[in-house]
Amino acid sequence: MLKPNAPPKNQISISKEDSLKLAHSSRRFEQASVSTPILSLYETRETKRRTNLIFSAKFILVEKEFVQTNAKNELLLALDSDHTGLCNLDTTSKPFEEIRSFIEHHIEGARSRIVEGSPKWEAPSALDHLTVRSRMSAESLKQVLRDPPSQTPLDQSLATDTTRRATQGSSALSAEMVSMVSDFSLTRREPRLPCYIIHPGRNADFYGRCDVLQLLDKTFLRPLSNDEAQHVGGKELRSLAICGPGGIGKTQVAAEYVHTRKDHFDAIFWVYADQPTKIAEGFSRIAIEMGLVSEDSADAKDQTVTRDIVKGWLANPLKTYDDIDNDAQKIAKWLLVLDNVDDSEMLTDYWPLDGPGCVLATSRDPLAKKSRFLATDGVDLGPFSREEAADLLLKLTERDAETEGVEPQLFDVAERLGGYPLAITQMAGVITRRDLSFAEFLQAYEEEEFREELFNLRLEAPGHRSGYEHTLATVWAIEGLEKNGGTLLDVLSFLDPDNIPERILTTRPVVAALEGFPTTTTAYQKARSELLQYSLVAKDKSANKLIIHRLIQDTARGKMSNARFLAIFSATARLLASVWPFDTSNWGHSVARWVVCEELFPHVLRIKASSSRFISSGRELGESLEPETSLELSRLLTDAGWYHLERGNPEESEEFYDIAKEICISLKSVVTKSATQTQPTTASLLSSIDHRLAEIFHHGGCSATVTNKPKMALSCFETYNSLVSDDFGTNPSGVGTRLAISWNELGVAHMMNQQWQKGEECCLKAIDIMRDLNLPRTMLSFPRVNLGLAYWLMGRIEESLSVLLEGLSDREASYGLNDRESFITGRFLHALGNVKATQGDLDESFAYHQRALLQYRSTVGDNHHRTAATCYKVAHHYARLDQNEAAIKLLNQALKIYRDRTAYKPELARVHYKKGLVLLSLGKANEAKASFEMGSRLYSDLVPGGSQPKRGLDEADLENLVVFWSR
């Protein structure tokens, strides 16, 4: 099927693998269609498709030559339609009558053959059981959609197909179990409508832009004509982009539109789109607020799942699933606002390609010609005219032109401000608060304009003066602030501009240790009030959050000296660290804090970005900051990186660790040079630095293990173990648990490098330390499961079985059979399945692997690499039992999870190779060949020199590339 947003046909590039698949499919079709009735339709009208941000063009996507098969029983029809309307036929038209006659004729022929007792029909050899699917009645489907199972898959599986110890597994698989394990389709939940997620409040002083609002109405609210409705089937996505420079009012226009047109939509979603993390969080919130996922479920924590669920609903936005008839009355109308789209490529995985909805985007890029989507239409938002700017000034300063007369200088003021709404709003605040006439304001403003420092702002490249009027106005407004207001604004300029929780500023204000920063409730409220009156910030009263324009932030930071920049940067970092929910669990796998982390993470990103000013100038952060601030900032960045890793972004987390490590190393250098280590304060500070470095190396090692970097993992964990061991020598009472963890992690690193004996020794040390500390037996889970795997890989099967069963028994005793405490139980089940397979007990191995898969799905979700690993293991069993369709489903799910991520190349190679074997057993030689070639190519990329065994690859070769816990 061709997508309307796909490249033109002359630009489509088909890989060799896809060419083979296409050729194979064509050959199978020719073999199967000898006597099969075929209905072939093609359009005669062009289909509109987007070519860039603003413009669209029309093409014939499916021509006659494209669909004609020349089969014996083919009916070839040309339809007066574009591609999207092929299935929307007028029931009174001639083509409809021809199609009806064609279908009735062949149905009657089939009925006659049945009545006359013709030989049993057999599918042509080119078709298999994956092509000819079982039927389900409409009523059965309705029942499935109405009555989802009350039990979770894990509950059902443990209650039926497997036992507590997985000792009664059977190769006689039930259809229910096969479906349960291999079905990764998303569960439908009733949407909660209406649903309005709108971040900015309505601006009571909004002015003008009637032409833009009318264009939005025309684009989004205009009913389709009968002809249009027939050709697009009511499913055309309508989109428009509001473009223009900063400060021109793009977001304000979008906010005014959504607040005044709510009654026209069943759902409105506002998503900040300037960072990938904010887009992902926005889609997660939509899924939860609409009730598409349960807030406390594993799916809600998996941003890939929430993204796919939301996109699925946007494409088919049913108000209810009680009735599957998809008529217009049951379709919800939605509007998605993507605010501040700086890079449209970030929307690639989120853009709703279809559906009867609307997308409104705001962007600084007026054309974005390199964008592949964003809008079918667009408008460049310009400054207000001289007259409009004057009217807005009168409105904001509450001056009546009729009774007071209009000062001649009014239009001069409006013109000097360049028609920028934000500049006009800010200057109106100055005029009102200082009780200036327009003439007095103009005189003072012109004096300010020639001050040399205003031209030295570090905002833009030299000579680039776009929006300068706004910059100058903002500077003057800022310089008129009182001390508390100005300092508060400076701190706000270092935070993410969208949705700044006020608790960052008010929970522990004294930690800012910054002169002028408000430390009492009264002082804070007064400073905030001043910023609001000058229109430098806005407030979301319902959520106790502040919003500040990016240009105001740029201006505030741009006028800071290096010393002032450093002071504000330090204070903001301390304020953020004071509210960040640091992970205090020993093993660092708590997900309860994720909700708070998600809210604060964009602000940590801004602090991390601001640190580049020191790095680019050649200065070390550890040398620039106070020691306590350095330690607190390194702790914040380290823990934020850990949160980023937990959310499935291990590669991106490494940058956090690198900056944190640089801070600590440079601080340590400063401390050792400036004082003797015998001084108590110096010794204490050095100990704190080493403690921070230990955590950084630990988290870096964990990132390396997840991304399959054995040497880096070993280096990090050796350093971590050394630092903790040194700390234990001076502080044994407070370091014991961390020392045990360090030995376990070092054991993992040795095993990643296939140093099994060293891995065993490290895990045993970890267990001994934990037992000496009288820790709960479940605390021993990690070293036990790693030890069990080490024994298995060394061929010490009985020892492995004993360790793993003991560990699983302890977890079941503490958390029950259906453990959802963490994924650790799944690791025991996975490992036990491997051991049982080695012993030749394949039925019991199968049962353990099934339990592992279901346990992972209920804890880490359907898109985690551990889930993918057990998809592979269970698929291996299904293939052995000739359940090839289920095996293919699981292998495809594994490929979907691993995707094209470099870290999982070994796992991808293994899955492709296994898929080739399954396809070969199904007689699909060409498809199998393509899978084998992919697996072989990935193998060559991974081994030194790219050489392969002369005997050819086998499963063992691919298995040996995979990290030990995924085998």
Please give a structural write-up.
With 967 residues, the protein is α/β, with parallel strands linked by helices. The protein has 41 helices and 13 strands. A hairpin with a 4-residue loop joins strand 12 and strand 13. Helix 34 packs antiparallel against helix 35.
What's a concise summary of this model?
It is built from 41 helices and 13 strands. The chain is of the alpha/beta class and 967 residues long. It is flat and about 95 Å long.
| Overall morphology | flat
Nearest-angstrom radius of gyration?
33 Å
The largest sheet is: 6 strands, parallel
| Whole-number mean pLDDT | 79
Q: Helical content, roughly?
A: 55-70%
How far is the first residue's CA from the last residue's CA? 37 Å
- The strand line-up of the biggest sheet is 5-7-8-9-6-10
Tell me the number of helical segments per DSSP (H or I, 4 or more residues long).
Answer: 41
Poorly predicted sequence stretches spanning 5 or more consecutive residues: 1-11, 118-165, 167-172, 449-469
Given helix and strand content, the structural type is alpha/beta
Beta content comes to 5-15%
Number of strands: 13
